[in-house]
Amino acid sequence: MKPIKTIFLLILFAPDIALAQIAPSTSPTETVELENFVVQGDPIENYRATDALTGTKIGAALRDLPLSINVVARELIEDRRLVSLGEALDNVSGAQRKPGYGGTQNFGAFIRGFDSGFITLRNGFRDLGFYTLRDAANVERFEVLKGPGSVLYGTLQPGGITNTLTKRPLARPQTRATAIVGTDDFYRAELDTTGPLTERVFYRLNLAYEDAGSFRDHVENQSEFIAPVLTWAISDRTSWTVEAEYKHTNFTWDLGLPTHPVVLELPIERFLGEPDGKNDVTSLFVSSMVDHQLNEQWSLRQNLSVARTEGDYNLRSAWRIAADNRTANRVAYATTEWSDNINLQHELIGRFETADLSHQLVAGVELYRSRGAYDFIFQALDDLDVFAPVYGAQPGFSFPIFADDNTTDVVGIYAQDLIAVGEAWKLLVGARYDSVRYKSFDRLGQAISRSSRDSAVSPQAGVVYQATSTSTLYASYSTSFSPITSGRKADGSFLDPEEGQQFEVGLKQEFLSGKLAATLATYRITKSNVSTPDPADPTFRVQVGEQRSNGVELDITGELSPGWDVVLAAAYNDAYVSRDNRFAVGSSLRGAADWSGSVWTKYTVQQGEAKGLSFGVGAYYMDERKAALPNPQWSLPSYTRFDAMIAYARESWRMQLNVKNLSDERIYDLTGTAIMPQPPRSFLFSVAYGF
What we know:
691 residues, 22-stranded antiparallel β-barrel
């Protein structure tokens, strides 16, 4: 037996080993308060957040914002025992998870019918998730801003953006450790400890180690994660928070299954790569955040983040199914890749009044540089019979096909103001100017293959009418833009950025004395400047394409009665090609489900001998989705998945059993280029102890 597995068994079954701690998820406060300074948002109770940071960067009450923002609380992450951040999207209306880059545990999303790519936010910093490694151990809350978000965050797709907010130091000492074992040789340990080092210096440290097999044949993963945070309250007006994340992982490359209907006939555990396709990847993220309060109305904030990911990849993948409908044509690549991201933000924040208007203003300048390089060496690899695979093929002849250095430089200037007009009206107005320069150097050809510059202004406007203390109506307009880094027009010029615009109206309603909140939204998003082949010469591109998404979403979160919490999400989305010279108008966008919905509910016994006993159950529905454009005659099948949980907390201990995919449903997700099955029925058992 492996030593790490022996340790897990000791943790699980030796109650005299006081290794760890778990504090109640609904702790009295989630902030460090030092007179006038607060370093984190309002605490979340019963899954329901009352504020969000993503829509304004400075925090605002959700009912004051003409925006759709979902917040997945840490309590929900723990109750569902999420070890992959992408799973949090299950509880967000109109959003679907998109597994990452061959097993690197990164994630993307389909939001409101559009593929958001792998760009995410981490504490408001851009994170090119295609490369970076993420872990759920230090995540405090997971926010999803739906609709265009370029006014604050620059180049984005119009569907929306995700933002993970990490845990901050607490003023009181607290330690937490958790051991988890599960199906398919899953073993994981987490440690979370926090408290004061001095009267004005606070720390938090999150650690995680994972050693896991997979329901996929021949696939395994091992990772280590370290995330320290220090907050120094230099004075009552000034604080400095320094944070780091380090993650190292060894994993088997698993791209999934080619986009072909025959793969739906295969067992979901069928692996089409090679067991020796091992990869070694390391990701490091460091940030510095300084807040200084000039006076009661104005403050300055300077944020800096640096991220580095590098890895040696050995890809063994099936890239298509041959005409005989049983042979997988495969390819191997040996590649060394790295990426660097530097983000510097200077912001002025004001809370002030002019005449009868109250303002919450953020204005800033953002400098961002992303650099990356990759050396792709093509290697021939024998085909594989998908119905009777025989593994052991070794890469054959090889030659380099790519060796590029890519650099993106962004300068953004932005301002946003949330204005209170009397007691009932709120206005949200803002705009951002971005200048983006992209350069690619081909090291094989020893020449610059592309050097382009784009710029755009991204406006935003919205209005809120608070008809009563519990009812809010809103309407908004927002925009996005995204540069295109490949292809040229027939005249030799580069393509213009894709542009997006959204109109949204909605209702936010509170029930049960504010313990339950609902948001009903309807929207139309139009994405223009989509590039298509030039009819006169398909080697060039023209920008006549347009895509559109219309939808309605409902989210309900909160407490139905003492101890009974619920999160409900439902959406209808019609995302389609509205103009194109290749695809039929009306064709569904890849990965866009017409109908989707979920509900998760938990009941905790409040008194008596069974006090501390919790039961949770969830149901998740996803309509069929087209796997590609142009739409084939087949789709990924619809599914309904059921999850369940039972937990018991007593004094410092907590034990929890989670069952995922209770009915053993066959489920498929779309990756960036392929199809990935979700796990069959699986179990996770966790034990935690705290002091």
